[in-house]
Amino acid sequence: MFDAWGPWAWVAAAWLELVLAYGGYLVYLRARAARLEREAERQPEADQPEPEEAER
Amino acid sequence: MKHATPRRPGWLNLLGVVAVSALAIGAYLGLVASPADVNQGELIRVMYAHVSVAWVSFLAVGVAAFAGIAYLWRGAPRFDVISVAASEAALLYGTLTILGGMTYSKPTLNTFWTWDAKLTLTALMVALLAGVFIVRGLIDEPQRRGRVSAVILIVVLASLPLNYLAAEWFRTLHPAKSIDLTGGGVTMDAVMLRVLLFNVVAAALVFLWLLLQRVRIGMREAELDDRSAARGRSEAIHV
């Protein structure tokens, strides 16, 4: 299969690997950051008193 | 109560613009401006992509291991966060080194892979970096998790000089170095050398940008874990 590849096909493949790897890792980082912020929004502040406690 | 979503700081976005621009310029230099090689022809353009990520994989291992050493020494959780972030980048760059090497090797040496010393040591480096994450997944206690992964990273760091010199000591498939940092000088065309060094800098800038983003995520995770633990303690006291 690869015997038919010319030099520029190999060059394109090598540089495409970089683009895909960097792009894929960036997407992973964005997804992880977004998931983290969703978790943070669900989590109440520990240092804030609960409403009942504050009333007392 | 809702937490305000921390915005990415302007300087990190600026670093991203600089890193991606450097990568684009490096690609232009490697794909267009660089002359073809006398022996390898256009295939020399694969070398710029392959060697730049290989060098940065060493840099990433260095950052991960030294942050691990700092964690062993000082015990501050931020060093573990930096160590894990750099390990993740080292795994990315190490994997890219192997893939790029295979892409370079097939058309020039007519094989994707052989178990020669340098390739085997690089594969071992990637396997150990993957091992860091496997081991971390198996250990619940944060301090022990950080210490064990730091020790693995020190072993990976110790293998780097051998990996660097392997192409000279064991002359099998992998070509000898064109830039010898041990006093052998440079046996590369001056234009090609400049294009290579520019691509190394570009790959290092992308590494730094990815690393800092990953460190921010790690710090935020640690902050939320602490908050969650504090809430757990507070609930236990109330019960």
Structural features, described:
The complex is a heterodimer of chains A (56) and B (239). Chain A has helices at 7-42, 51-55. Chain A is an all-alpha fold and 56 residues long. Chain A is rod-shaped and about 60 Å long. Chain B has 239 residues and is mostly helical. Chain B has one domain. Chain B contains 6 helices and 2 strands. A two-stranded antiparallel sheet of chain B has the order 1-2. In chain B, a hairpin with a 4-residue loop joins strand 1 and strand 2 (185-186). Chain B is globular and about 80 Å long. The mean pLDDT of chain B is 91. The chains are: A mainly alpha (56), B mainly alpha (239). The A-B interface holds A 2, 5, 7-8, 10-11, 13-15, 17-18, 21-22, 25-26, 29, 32-33, 36-37, 39-41, 43-48 and B 1-3, 5, 23, 27, 30-31, 41-43, 45-46, 49-50, 53, 92, 95-96, 99-100, 103-104, 106-107, 206, 210, 213-214, 216-217, 220-221, 224, 227-228, 230-231, 234.
Give keywords.
heterodimer; A: 56 residues; mainly alpha; B: 239 residues; globular
**What's the number of extended β-strand segments of chain A?**
0
Q: Mean pLDDT of chain A, nearest integer?
A: 84
Helix and strand content put the structural class of chain A at: mainly alpha
The percent of residues in helical segments of chain A reads: over 70%
Any idea what the radius of gyration of chain A is?
A: 24 Å
Biggest interface, chains and residues, is: A-B, 29 and 39 residues
Number of domains of chain B: 1
Q: Provide the low-confidence segments of chain A as ranges.
A: none
- Low-confidence spans of chain B: none
* SSE series of chain B: HHHHHEEH
Output the structural class of chain B: mainly alpha
Shape of chain A: rod-shaped
Largest beta-sheet details of chain B? 2 strands, antiparallel
Please indicate the percent range of residues of chain A in DSSP E strands (runs of 2 or more): under 5%
Identify the overall geometry of chain B. Answer: globular
Q: Can you count the helices of chain A?
A: 2
Q: Span from first to last CA of chain A?
A: 76 Å
Query: What's the N-to-C terminus distance of chain B?
Result: 22 Å
Quaternary state, please?
Answer: heterodimer
Give a short account of the largest sheet of chain A: none
SSE series of chain A:
HH
